[in-house]
Specification:
mainly alpha; 8 helices; SPAG7 protein; 3 strands; Ribosomal Protein S8, Chain: A, domain 1; SPAG7; three-stranded antiparallel beta sheet
Length: 196
Amino acid sequence: APEQAARMKKLQEQEKRQKVEFRKRMEQEVSQFIQATGEPRRRFQPMNKIERSILHDVAEVAGLTSFSFGDDEDSRYVMVFKKEFAPSDEELDAYRRGEEWDPVRAEERRRLRELAAQQEEAELERGPAPPGPPNDYKDKYRHLIGSDAAKAAARTMEANKAYGCVPVANKRDTRSIEEAMNEIRAKKRLRQAEDE
């Protein structure tokens, strides 16, 4: 157990030294990046989570903006941006999708979005479309009824006198609803009285 504790302590010290060395190396690279005038952003190689957090900390201390990109843990990398060249939301979305940032394509997308917004606004100004179906329902059934047969059948059709509202004269039961309900209640009372 004491040997294992000594080994663990030695590994922890070694890991701590590696982190300090990595931080110094990143501070040097960030310093070089700040001094490079023609470089608005720098992409670093994929790193593990601890190294990325160290690099983010170094960038924050240096006054830079940093973001991590990549899908899985093995391929995630850090990009550092100078404050005056801070990325737009569109640029960040492109990096998140794994694409290279192209300002010309971004400008074209922006113009297309503006055009779509203008068209939508013009449609709203015109007002809603008149209510009604978008097409004639007869078109749906044209293959079944044809175009001429339905019109001819509609012209020759006669009204069925037995269909629809029934006149009082044709009804078998001429009582009102109240009269029918009162008669039913009276029969129930009579049955209950007989049962008792």
